[in-house]
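Re: the request from the purification team.
They wanted to know what the chain is likely to look like in 3D before they choose a buffer screen. I agreed to run a prediction and write the result into the notebook, where they can find it.
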Amino acid sequence: MEHNSLLRKAGRRRALRRTGMSGSTLAQMQVNADSLENLFKKGLKGMASVLNKDLVCSVDHYDCVMKVKITAADSGMLFMKFLNKAVELTHIQKAVFCHVYVEEFTPEKLVGQLYGCWYEHLDLEIKSVADCALSVCPDDRSWKGSVAFELYGRTHNLSVKH
């Protein structure tokens, strides 16, 4: 149920669309959580499920642990830099990172360890996090995040099955 609420299609489950001018493909993800820290954790899991849905669901051990320290001017930029760092490490380490142990967290700083599993293939390859937006729901103080991923050229298959 957690993964189903992460990606949405045209306001419902997921949306993958092709942009007109640059020809690049974007995948959009919506994340909801009860706290800002949990939004980061769920965002990482959601991104991992876009990269390789089978790996995230069957993780019972981790092959790779990477220490991260990220700072930014605000929580939105921190979220974007955090996800971009996970994408960068995915390509360098050939591992999908699906869990973060947070040692220190503020709206401007995250220090922690990313845990990942090596992969043989990716369902989709994320080039970068193209855009992020965060908001707080005034009624219950829950956090909402919207993320747009720029994907590498596999434009012939735009559906993600979850």
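For the purification team: Strands lie at 15-18, 25-33, 64-71, 95-106, 109-118, 126-136, 143-151.
Please add any questions underneath this entry.
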